[in-house]
Every structure is written in C-alpha cells, then in structure tokens.
Specification:
Oligomer: homodimer
Helix content of chain A: 40-55%
Largest interface: A-B, 107 and 106 residues
Number of domains of chain A: 4
CATH superfamily of the largest domain in chain A: Butyryl-CoA Dehydrogenase, subunit A, domain 3
Strand content of chain A: 5-15%
CATH topology of the largest domain in chain A: Butyryl-CoA Dehydrogenase, subunit A, domain 3
Distance between the termini of chain A: 45 Å
Number of strands of chain A: 12
CATH class of the largest domain in chain A: Mainly Alpha
C-alpha cells in the first residue's frame, strides 16, 4: 500500500503544494514522509499481529468491568504515544499541524492492520476535533485536550434502539439541571435520560474516563420533545464526573452499560447499549446552541464518512495484498495451451491463471481506486480549510457531492474485493486460518454505519446534486472534462476519454430525468441505483486521471495502475448504463410493489 | 417458501405428468404433498431451532473422538427415521421411488433450516446413490444399503491439500493389496496412502461407521502415478473394517483424523483433513474399472452441483423470509411526502420505504428465481432418467448446459441476497442475535466447493456450449424462444419478450465471437463474465416463463412473482451487456496484465 499512497500523495495530489500555506509551513516532504514511516511501522508491529486475537477474544463483561485483551491495551498505548490522536491540531493544542490528507493516509495503516483496535482512536479524534470547533474554551481544555492527549477516549452517541437512520425519532431527553444550570464552568448543565445503541468504544478500561458526545432533545415549552431533528442538541456526558479542571471527582456519572453487542465483525471494539440516567439523570454539558446538535454532528460527518470509506478501503487493500501473496506462492494447475492442458507439465503458481488475475485486478481496481477517492476527498478537506476563498468554496462544494460516494462506494466494492480475496484462496480462504474471511466480515459493517447505502443515495440524489441549482454536479463535470481533455490528447488513452465523456453525459441525463413528472418519493425510489452508477463514473474518472499522470512511465508500478484502469473501463464502467437507465426511465417497480406481495 | 415450491412443482413444472411413468406409478399428488409436509414440519421442529447452536458449538476433538452437540445427534436421527436418505431409491432398496425433483424440493426444507446439520445426510445420499449405479451387488448390499438406512454415513474424498480444483494432481496412491486382491467379496482390494482435505462429515460419532468414497491413483507399470486425470480410480474406504456381510470386524481401518478445519460458516458440519494409510495402508475396495474414477464422480456431479445450488438458494430464501418479517414489524422513519417528510406523522414499518422494498424485491428475484432454476434442473434429471429416449436425450443435454449455472448463479446472487437481508436489518443484522449474518457466512462457501466459479465458467464456455457442435445451446435458445413466443402474445408481457429475445441474441453472438481469432486460453480468460451474463439470461427466461404461467391471476402471490419478474428485467437483465461485451470484444486485459504489476 505504501508505494501507492506515496504516489497518490506526492505525484497525483501534489501535497507538496500544501507546504506553501502558513498553517503547514513548519512541515516538509520529509516530515510528511516520516509520519507515514512511523505509522506504517507502528501498525505493523503493534496492531497487525493482534488482529485475529481481538476478533476471537471478544470484549466481555466480568466483575462489573469490560475486559479487553491485554494486547489491545498495549497497542492503544503505543498509538497514544505516537501523538497521532492530535495529528491535525495546532501545536498549542498538542498537535502536529498535519494536513488532513496526511493524517488520513497515516492513520489508514492502523485501520488496515486492525480495524477492531483502531476504532477507539478514530472515534476519540473525531470527538475531540468536534469539540475543538464547537466547544467552549473550558470544554476544549477539559474534554478535548484530555482526549487529544489520550488520557481519555471518546464516543459518538447518536443511534437509539428505535432510531437508527431516523434521527428525528431520538427519545433521549435533556432537561436543565436546576435553576443555575447556566452557570457551570463546563457549560450549560443538563440531566440526561435515555438509551443509546451501537456505541462503539462505549465502555472499556483503556483510559481513566470516557467522553460521550450525546444527541438528545430538550423538551419544548409544553414539556414535550420537539418533533423532527430541529429539537436535537448536543451534550458532553463523561462516564465519570470531572471538575472544572478536568480532575475526576470520584463520582461516577449516571451512565451504565446495558449490554454488549455481539457482531459479525469489528469484534475488537466494544459496541454497547448505554443507559443514561437510570438513577435519575446523567450530567451533560451542552455544546453550542440548543437545537443545533445535528448541525454540529454533521459538521464532522463529512470527515467521519470519509473515515468510514477509508476503513472499507484499507480492508480492501489488505485482502488484495493477502491474495496477491497467496497467488504468487500457491502452486496449482497448469495454463491452458493450444492443445488443451499438458498434464505432464509442472503446475504453476495460481497467479498465472487468467481468472485469478481477473480477481486480483478487480481487487486492485476497487481498493486502490477507493484509496485514490478517499485521499482526493481528504485533500478537498484541506482545500476547504486552508485554500483561498474561491478555491475553498469549490472544494467544499465538491466535497459535499463526493462524500456519499466516498462513504458508499468502498463499502460496497471493497467488500466485493474481500469476497474475491477469499475466492483466490479457495477453500483455505473460507477458513479462519487465513486473514481474508475476517476482512470480509469486518467490512460488511461499512454499508450500514454512519448512514446506510439507502441514506447515502437519498443524500446524493435528493440533496447534493441539486445544491445551488446543481452547481456541485457542474463542478464535478468540469473537473472530469479536464481529465477527459488531457487523456484525449494522449496515445492509448483517447478511447477511454471518450467512454468517460459518454458516461458523464449519461449521468447528467439521468440526474435531470429522474425528477421529470414524478414526486420526490418516486424519484428517490431509485436513489441507490443512482448512487451506484454515480460512484462508478467517479471511479472511472479517478482511474483515468491516474493513468494520465502515469502516462510516460513504463515501470511495473505504472503498468499495474494502467491495467487497473483498463480493467475498470472494460469490466466496470459499462455497468453504469444498467443502473442509470433505471433512474432515467423513472422505473417505479420497487416503489409500486404492494407490501402483501412479499 | 412452501407456497412457491407448490406453485413451481404443480403449476409450473407440472409434476403430475410424472405419475404416468411406470417408476412413479405408486405415487399421487397426495403422496408428493405429504412428503413435502413431513419434511417441512420435521425441518422446522428438529433442525431450525438448533441452527445457531451448531454454529457456535463447533465440532471439536476430545478423548480421541469428534464431539458434536447432542442436538445434531437428535436431528440427524429424526431425519434418518424419515426415510429421506433413500427417497429416490426403489422400494427394493428401502426407498420411496420419489422423483428427484420431489426429493430435492423436500430436502430443501432441511437445508434451509440448517445447512450445517443437513450436510451429513446430503453427502450420505449422494455417496449411496453413486454406489447404487456403479457398485457391485456386494458393494450395494453392504455400503449403499447401510447408508440408505442411515446406519452408516458417507463422504466424498476428492481434494487434497495441494490439489483442490486441479484433480490431475491427486497424489493419493492405491496399490493392489496382495496377490489375491481381486478375490475379495467386497471388490478389488487396495492399500491406500495419502491425505484428503476439506472432507465434510469426515469424522464424527453420529453413526457406527463412515463410508469414504476416495479418489486415488493406481500406479502404472513403471510404478509411477499416471499423469493427468486418466489415472484416477474410485475406492470405498470404510472408517472401520467390515466383513462381507457388513458387520464391523472390530478393527479400525487405517484412516485418521489429521485435523478439523475451522471455517467461516457451515460450522455445524465437521470438515476434516484425513490421513489414509499412516500405519501402512487403508483398505479400499475399487468401484468399477481402474482409471474411471473421475467419470463415476462426475456421473453424480450434476446432481451434486444442483444440490450445492439448492443449498445456496434456500439460504437466500431464508434470508429473504427473515428480512420480510423484520421489515413488516420494524417501525422507523416516514414516507417521503410531496413537501418533504412530516416529522409529526407516525413512523411506519420499514417495508413502506421504497429502498427497503427494492432490497426485498431483489432478494425475492434472486432466491425464488434460483429455486425455479434448481427445480427446473431437478425436473430435467427426472426426464433424463424416465422419459422416452428423445426427450431424455434432450433433457440430458440441457442439463449439462445448465448445471454450471445451477451451481454458480445462486452461489453468487443468493449470497448477494443474504447481504441485502443484513442491510434490511440495519445494525441489528450485523449482530449474531439475528439469523441473517449466519446465512451470509454459510452461503459464502458455495462459490468455492464442488467446482469454483472459475471452474464453472471454463466448463460452460470451454466445453458445454460447444457440445455436439453447439446443440445444447441451440436447444436452450429454442426453449427460450418458446417462452418468448408465448409472452409476446400476452398483454403487458410483450415488451419483456422482446428484451429477452435481444439478450439471447447477444448471448449467441458473444458465444461465437469469444473464439474468433484467439487461443483457448485467451477465450477462456473471460469465462467468468460469460458465466455471469449467461446466468442472468437464464434467470430472465425463467422469470418470464413464470410470469406467463401466472398471467391470468391477480392475487397477491401472482402479483409478487410478476413484480419480481419486472424487477429482474428492469434492474438485472441490463447488466448482461456489461458482461457479454467483454467476452464478445475478446478483451484481454486480465490475461495480459503481467504478474509483477500486482
């Protein structure tokens, strides 16, 4: 993976140009490289060797505590020591001032080595980063800083047993804690009661405290929760009570572990049902304004979704690398010759078989294409935060549009890559003696959490492509046109340029046609096929852009990327028509089927 | 599932017409129905309740024995009592004289309830059926009869650690056991040495003995194994030695359990590495002629592959049914209205959401379509064995052609259905508290065993479509034309008839074009996309044929099938072009990518 990451960062995304910006001025290509070196090394040494162990020794509850393998404690401690929790923060906050794209690339090595271990840190960073933007000075000093240093870890408490995708139905209540609730040093103080489901890292003994960020509703004047998402506010609820200086008071807060979820994968991470306020109310400190909770959460959702996409991506890469290794060493069968197979010939490594190469090339196209997509989006985050106004606005707009793809595409296609990795291993891949079955299990979560495929589709077709009267889609089309123009002028790439051009036209047509003469519900009934078609067009674009960048090179690395591009255009891009035709035709089959027909 | 099975058997495949044949003359529609009733009931009572338990309490080795849960012993005993092991055998052999299609349908209920428990019986029946065709009278009396009665169970020992798909590399040796090896009452007696891998049911204490059917090579005159598959013979190797009357002699045969495989799914079934002849040689009795072993195995391979396809199918059905139930009862979210969502409206059951219906309809189209395919193929087996000469020949030819599809299509698309079943359940589907994640894990095996996807593709494009100068494909095209002609004359179906007609033309074109001007290896490098495109055309045909049969009906059952057909034509059939264009264009990307590019 490292060579591809280096190429994507240095040659394709030209991260060197970020060094001109004031916030990154202390860095150099060498410091970027040494962060990547450090993370790659640490992940290989401290995370990878325990990935199977954390899968088999699931968290369990004993003597009132959640027990994790010792190896998780050690790995997490090493990670904390690396300083990566605060990688993108400023030095004043104990950070490294790294660009987001470098942080994403560096942390990807940990996710690849063990997603089950790395989840704890990912959530903590996301939690602290949110507080650094939306918290008060005291909240930053107490709750963010102690997470960025790794003294405490954090969670996101969004879902409830009855409300997963449907956030407007959140039932957790927050009521002002006494008359003087506004005068607490840590922020407006509330009493929370409710149940939160699917809380990753929701309980453990890895750190002395856990900082929950909790969505809850403050009752309106009539004492009832406000319907819809408008009533949702955001609260900091520590597992153990702390004082204004961040010292533990010795009292526990009213947050109790109601159950551990036993999942198909991601078993290294505790996943909890938490009850808030079983004994009267958990103390929570409001973040920002009442009723703005979802906005704050969504402020970080783009980054969270890119992180989910990156998790899916590196599981894809891990399976790809494992199956390339296996295919090079596993000897079986013979190549077909003109006169059939020669049984007296020596068997060959299975990488010699065309269908094995097909499965490897598909994995490469899916997983390395996804890697390009995630890093492209991460680069847009940096543009959004540090570029000049117009560029930043453009980057933000493009990021909004691409985020549903960055979340959904790897979660679908790197899962498929993991299935192909099993297939390359044959029967062995179906056993727990090899890593690939765990990759496949771990990856299956990514189409579900942080917004399901269905939610991403509706976000894309129902909202994103129509933002600013379609400005985001026009911007994307313009970027793709640029790639098409470059590629069209290069030997051997012009045919791909034409294919991509046609695909974009089909996408634009389907986008427009999807709404003609139908209701929103009707149009959105095909949101997932639209998402799938859109995603394949984006990936074809990225692959062609990469091939364009590598056009002059003839080494094996460059040839591999060019073959992956050719695979994508020959085998994958043509699928776009099947998805988009449904959308453009406003086919209503799935909406119209009566519920009693199943 | 039962209503669909009844419709497919009675209305679509008209099994009643089988009653005219002498071998089935003792049966009636009532006896067919009562076998289905009995199996459905028994599977629900004795298999289904233990499916999760056999997944979590994996077989293990203790005190020299393989330990299985008590529940497996009980379930298997109830199954044996049902007499289904010998369902298709004649009464003289203790059987029920059932048509194969009825047996397949009836046994499908057990596979659906617990594939991990039912594997033992499936293998035993397949083993005994082979011996009933190719064994001597003594072999039938001792080895087949004792399996058909359930006193002993059986296995198929084909793969070896170094030879999975590549059977020509089998290294297990069989040498004549003494000068008088030809005079044993149980058949020519050999000494076997070698290692067999992936042996399902390879060891257990469910029955007093285990009958292994083992592929091994008899050394040639030079003492060396004959290269290729020509040298392979078939042997009966009992776990414990028996005399000519089938009584245990009290001596164990030289077959030892070298290890249990720990799989991703199918955990209820022991899966073993067996060593033959560690102490000098295991006694084996040759079946049939030397060098014909693979032919005998393949004689039953069509049936075995339909059984694998059926296993994949019913896992798809199980996930479909579970997710329909969940979608009807899980309440979350609101339907999109013209003015956006109304947050004050009550939440609805998720089956009201269009994207959930899409996922249910896709599962229905995949799994019920697969069910039709498997039963259609099983019906062809009956035609092949009991119809008049010309019809039997036609059925045999068509069966040869469709078998790779019957094996591969459900293993790919009912796995996809299982993934959609998880998705319908959201986060809950990703936990082990629900059945759907186990379906998905169990189903992943089916693309691997009994011939991988790659093997099926090569069988189809390299051999089957060219049999008898393409006679099988012409026959299939003629059958499809018949459906097209019927459908074209029916209101509301003619557009689908045209689409199917075009798809068949594209298939015929790709079949022809795949070989023009290229080598066999080049042509076959696209065998899997060909297999996928071919499969989708076949399924579209079956769905249209079913819709034609139901055309006059307007009840919910019929409407459900019609919507599944419409879904298949709108969402699935268009994918065919993407697969077949690669084949027709003789795209060589996957063959040409150099191994050092990965």
């Amino acid at each position: 993976m490292r060579a591809t990451v280096d190429f994507l960062l240095n040659d394709w995304l030209v991260v060197e140009s970020l060094l001109d910006r004031e916030c990154f001025a202390e860095h150099s290509m060498e410091t970027f490289g040494s962060v990547l070196d450090m993370c790659e090394r640490l992940a290989a040494a401290e995370f990878a060797p325990h990935n199977r162990l954390v899968d088999t020794q699931e968290p369990h509850f004993a003597n009132g505590r959640v027990v994790l393998p010792r190896e998780t404690h050690v790995a997490v401690a090493r990670y904390v020591e690396s300083g990566m929790l605060a990688a993108t923060q400023e030095e004043a906050a104990g950070g490294m001032c790294l660009p987001f794209v470098i942080e994403m690339a560096a942390n990807a090595f940990f996710c690849k080595a063990s997603i089950g271990i790395s989840n704890y840190a990912t959530l903590t960073t996301a939690n602290a980063n949110l507080l650094m933007v939306h918290g008060t000075e005291a909240q930053k000093r107490v709750f963010a800083a102690n997470q960025l240093s790794g003294r405490w870890f954090g969670t996101m408490c969004i879902s409830e047993p009855q409300a997963g995708s449907s956030l407007s139905d959140i039932a957790t209540r927050a009521v002002p804690d006494g008359e003087e609730f506004m005068s607490d040093a840590l922020g407006p103080r509330y009493c929370l009661t409710g149940n939160k489901m699917w809380i990753s890292g929701g309980d453990h003994e890895l750190t002395e405290n856990i900082v929950h960020l909790v969505l809850a509703k403050i009752p309106g004047a009539d004492g009832k929760p406000v319907p819809g998402t408008r009533g949702i506010s955001l609260f900091i609820v520590p597992k153990k009570r702390v004082d204004a200086e961040g010292c533990l008071t010795g009292e526990s807060n009213d947050v109790s572990l109601a159950g551990l979820n036993h999942k198909l994968g991601h078993r290294g991470t505790t996943n909890c049902l938490l009850n808030f306020g079983e004994q009267g109310g958990a103390t929570g400190y409001r973040v920002g304004a009442p009723g703005e909770g979802l906005k704050y959460m969504f402020h970080m959702m783009n980054e969270a979704r890119i992180r989910v996409g990156m998790g899916a991506t590196v599981l894809g890469v891990a399976g790809y690398e494992a199956s390339v290794d296996y295919a090079r060493t596993r000897v079986q069968g013979r190549r077909a010759a003109a006169a059939g197979k020669d049984a007296t010939a020596l068997p060959v490594a299975i990488i010699e078989h065309a269908d094995v190469r097909r499965m490897l090339l598909a994995q490469k196209a899916y997983s390395e294409g996804s890697l390009a997509l995630q890093l492209y989006c991460a680069r847009l985050v940096d543009e959004q935060h540090t570029a000049s106004r117009r560029q930043a606005d453009e980057a933000g707009l493009l990021l909004e549009l691409l985020t549903p793809i960055a979340k959904s595409w790897p979660s679908e296609w790197c899962l498929e890559a993991n299935s192909l990795a099993i297939q390359v291993h044959g029967g062995y891949g179906y056993t727990r003696d090899f890593a690939v079955e765990q990759h496949w299990r771990d990856n299956r979560l990514n189409m579900i959490h942080e917004g399901t495929h269905g939610v991403q589709g509706i976000d894309l077709l129902g909202r994103k492509v129509h933002l600013d009267d379609g400005a985001a889609l026009r911007l994307l089309a313009a970027r793709i046109s640029e790639t098409v123009r470059h590629a069209a002028a290069l030997d051997g790439l012009s045919e791909y340029a034409s294919q991509l051009d046609l695909a974009v036209a089909a996408l634009e047509h389907a986008t427009h046609a999807s709404r003609v003469g139908v209701s929103a519900e009707e149009s959105l009934s095909n949101a997932v096929p639209y998402l799938q078609g859109f995603g394949h067009v984006v990936l074809a674009w990225l692959w062609l852009d990469i091939a364009t960048r590598l056009h002059v090179r003839t080494d094996a690395f460059a040839a591999g990327k060019q073959f992956a591009m050719r695979y994508f255009f020959a085998h994958e891009l043509p699928k776009v028509k099947a998805w988009l035709d449904v959308v453009a035709a406003r086919d209503m089959t799935t909406l119209l089927v009566p519920a009693d027909c199943f």
